[in-house]
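To close the section, here is one more complete example, presented without commentary so you can practise reading it yourself. The ligand is zinc ion.
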Amino acid sequence: MISPIVVSAADAGKFAKHMGFFVYEDGAFLGGAIAAAEKRRLWEASKESGFKAVIGECTEIPEMAQGGRRIVLVGLGKKKEVCAETLRRAGAALYRHAKGRWEKLLISAPIASAAPIFEGFMLASYEFTEYKKPEAARLSSAGFLAADAREMAGLRKILDRSSAVCQAVAFARDLVNRGASDKTPEKMGEIASTLAGPRVKVDVFGREKAAELGMGSFLSVARGSDDEPAFVRLVYKPAGRVKKRIGLVGKGITFDSGGLSLKPPASMETMKMDMAGAAAVLAVFRALPALGPRLEVHGFCPFTYNLPGPRATKPGDVVKAMNGKTIEILNTDAEGRLVLADALCLAAQEKLDAVIDMATLTGAAVTALGSKVSAVMAGDKILLERLLRASRESGEMMWELPLVKEYRELLKSDVADLRNIGRVRGEAGTIIGGLFLKEFSGDAPWAHLDIAGPAWSDKASSYFSQGGTGAPVRTILRYLESL
Ligand code: BES
Ligand code: MN
Ligand code: ZN
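Output:
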């Protein structure tokens, strides 16, 4: 990934021969460190190539030197429709245009637009290279032009934050993209341990300790596999006073075969991504020391495979979660809620001010909201509003689904306190998942994010590459910073 640097006006000439500007459909520039007459000339010249300045459209102005530099214009569309997401997309488009063409690129835009432009640019430059060589690229560095010394300092701050956020997103994407056999639960524990530092403590435990704690629900999923499960606990503590204590819980199924309720082959193809919730939690902890919010943040990541080994849970089995509730497992493919149940119980013991779980929980969420929108369910209005605001600001779309009380009876079991799937097939699957989790969330304000759609992208576009997206890392970091 390319992290842009800040370049002073004095150094700009030496830094790069190519320079990017952003322009609206009506020819107005988004700031841009050149004279108005020069902008008009560039706009006129761009017309020759049929440039319309639609969002993300790029054009290089031929034979047009500005202080000996070559100019590329990036379209922003209609001025009244522009938002942070437009700027992210434009930043991504500029990266994709420059990538194979130039070695260095200077970006000129107002400081107020810098953060989303950086974000789009950096995230678009992400590539998963664990199993193959990176694509050929010319571009090796990018700079953002600072008008004066004050802007220099301001831009550096913005860049540092954006870099920390995007590095975290890339970290989550790498984990999701890795093959399931290369990320055993124990390996995930080791990776989590590398996040430990002066402000972050990490603790990992396996079957034995989980059994001592009474995590019968989590362990019922782990039974189907020879690999030891790993429960990862993380705590971030800031330097000064703590304003609030927040819990983050992530589903960490390192591969979801469905267990004995086996999935068909096509549905398994992407199931290495079933630990995207836990990957996002780990990624948040990777960024926290750099962002330094005055919060205590607790992480809970239950990692295990969901496999149909000889000792696997059989449909009809009853298990007991940490809070004493018994669960009749009728479908071993509804395993995410089983590992999260015990993780939520452990979080509840901490008496936190809010707990948010994130999980690729239901295919029904993809049916309802598609691949771009996560479902949010929350028992608490304030928490819900804060999350939705953070989601709007980050461009990671989320939509509320109701925790319909009347549906709770669909989870009633004949032999246990709860069943792990609803009574009516194909009805409100995502809400049923939320209602199940609620039974384990304790008294603290709680929200559940079903990220089954947005955690994965079938193809590269805008600032996404094919595969893991890093959702909802940016939203969670924003939410935490807003407290
Ligand atoms: N990991 C899946 C959900 C999923 C599906 C995520 C597609 C991403 C894309 C989850 O464990 C699952 O299998 N859920 C079942 C629940 C059902 C058995 C109640 C599902 O969605 O079919
Ligand atoms: Mn499943
Ligand atoms: Zn799953």
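Once you have examined the tokens, check your reading against these statements. The chain has a mean pLDDT of 97. Residues 256, 258, 333, 335 surround manganese (II) ion (ligand 2) (CB under 6 Å).
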